[in-house]
Here is the input.
Amino acid sequence: MLKIGEFSKLSRVSVRMLRHYDEIGLLNPAEIDRFTDYRYYREDQLPAAGRIAALKDMGFSLADIVRILDVYDDRAQLERFFSARRRELEALSRETARRLTLLDAAQRRLRKEEDMSYNVTIKTIPERYAATVRMTIPRYEDEGMVWADRRPLNPKPSTLNPEI
Here is the structure.
């Protein structure tokens, strides 16, 4: 049996984290001395500590790791957990790439020597009818959704008011 400090060194998991794992039921000590409350672990618990560390490195939460370790021997369920995590990480990667693109564009604008100047002319034009499309898009980059919306424009004649 290994004291918690020895197990901590061998597993490379801090004593504080081992206590937390015990509290949440992730990795319980093999024995707890009822007089001193010292925690003791068996050597055969080291692979479980290694699995926990590997799953944490993959970005799984401790709550997920508890569920994964319950089904660790079931390859199909383990594959489902891994596939779901892969999808989450790929989505995060796409979002991170989008944010990096925005940062790059902002930095390019900052590095430009010349100031952007526009000449604005205000004119009064005669009144006219205008067709508009109104919709909410999730972000500016999705503007193409507005132009892809090609619903036929078939207004009923009774709804048009020629006096407007």
About this structure: The two ends are 90 Å apart (CA to CA). The first strand starts at residue 2 and ends at 3.
